[in-house]
Structure formats: C-alpha cells, structure tokens
Amino acid sequence: MVSEITTLKKHASSSKHCENSKSITGVNLITNMFKKGDQVKRIDQIKTAEILMCGFLSKHNIPFNAINRLTQVMKKAFPDSEIAQKIVLDRTKATKIVTNVIGLSNKEELINDLKNTSFSVIIDESTDVGTLKTLCICVRYFNLKSNKIQSRFWELVELFKDSNSANEGATANKIYTEVMN
C-alpha cells in the first residue's frame, strides 16, 4: 500500500472500510483527521480576515466602534461565505489585535530594519487634553527594501508614571532617561 492522501481517501470510501468502521466506536477515523485539518485551515482564514479588517481600520483611521457594525454588514453581504459568518470581532478584540498582533509585528520588522542601518531618533513631548504628558519617539532611516528614507513611529511613552516623576517635570534629564529606556 502506498501511503498517499489519495490512496487513503480512496480506501476510506471503499465499502469494506465503511462496513468495518461502523463496528468500531470511539476511534478517530482517518477521514475525521482530514476534516480537522480543514477546520484548522478555516480557523486560520477567519483569523486572517479579522487581522485584515483591523489593519484596514488602523490604516484609514476609522474608529474601532465601527467594527461591530462592519462585522454585521459583512455577514449580510456575504451570506454564502463561511469565513464571513464565523468572524467574531468587536471594539475590544479589534483594539487588542491592532496593539498585540499588528503593532508587535510592525515593531519587530522595524527592529530588524534598524539592526542593518544607521538611524536617527526624533522625539516630541506634548500634553493631551487630560494633562497627560507623553513623549512620541520616531526613527528616521534609509529603508533598503523600499530604497527610500522613512520616518516611522517607534513608541509613545508616558512621561509621568507616578507623582514623584510629575514633581520633577519634563526636564531634559527626564526626557533623556525615557528615550534611553
């Protein structure tokens, strides 16, 4: 017997195999294993669709609250798509995907780019409407892949994490320490 998938599938559909498999209970049949592989593939496709939708929101600066309605619209627009029907995505999950999946992936890519080239650091400290002082750190470098000079976001740092650092103020030493950290 040659152990190829087509041979195994052909054997699984034979009348002798079907009769013998009816008498066996509690055993995973090989056809069920193939179905599980398809299920894993389908789950990966659903995850990919969710990541793509979250990336679209981020790229076009669309509020995360819109994802709830967008998911419902996609289910109605594509009733025959199993992937669209299985997407479960709300504001909280979308935020986490952007932060913990897309954001980390982009930062890892940027780290790999910066390891191979010289770069400069650009910083800007500002205060938001809630009087929270933040420090935006960007990097500028020559990207060998795109053959262009690029400025990319590195990190947004909260300058005052406790009352002691707030008393110190946004001094040059404080900003230097945060950039070095």
What this model shows, in words?
The protein has 181 residues and is of the alpha+beta class. It has 2 domains: 77 residues; 65 residues, no CATH class. The chain is built from 8 helices and 3 strands; from the N terminus they run H-H-H-H-H-H-E-E-E-H-H. Helix 3 crosses helix 6.
Tell me roughly what share of residues is in helical segments: 55-70%
Mean pLDDT: 83
Shape: elongated
Unreliable stretches: none
Tally of individual helices = 8
- Total DSSP E strands: 3
- First CA to last CA: what distance? 62 Å
Cross-sheet strand order for the largest sheet: 1-2-3
Rg value: 26 Å
Main sheet properties:
3 strands, antiparallel
Strand coverage percent: 15-25%
Order of helices and strands: HHHHHHEEEHH
Structural class: alpha+beta
Number of domains: 2
Salient structural properties:
181 residues; single chain; 57% helix; 2 domains; three-stranded antiparallel β-sheet; 3 strands; alpha+beta
Give a brief description.
The chain has 181 residues and is of the alpha+beta class. It has eight helices and three strands.
How are the SSEs ordered, and which strands pair?
Blueprint: H1 5-12, H2 15-23, H3 30-59, H4 66-77, H5 82-86, H6 91-115, E1 119-127, E2 133-143, E3 148-158, H7 163-168, H8 172-180
Antiparallel strand pairs: 1-2, 2-3
Helix pairs in contact: 3-6
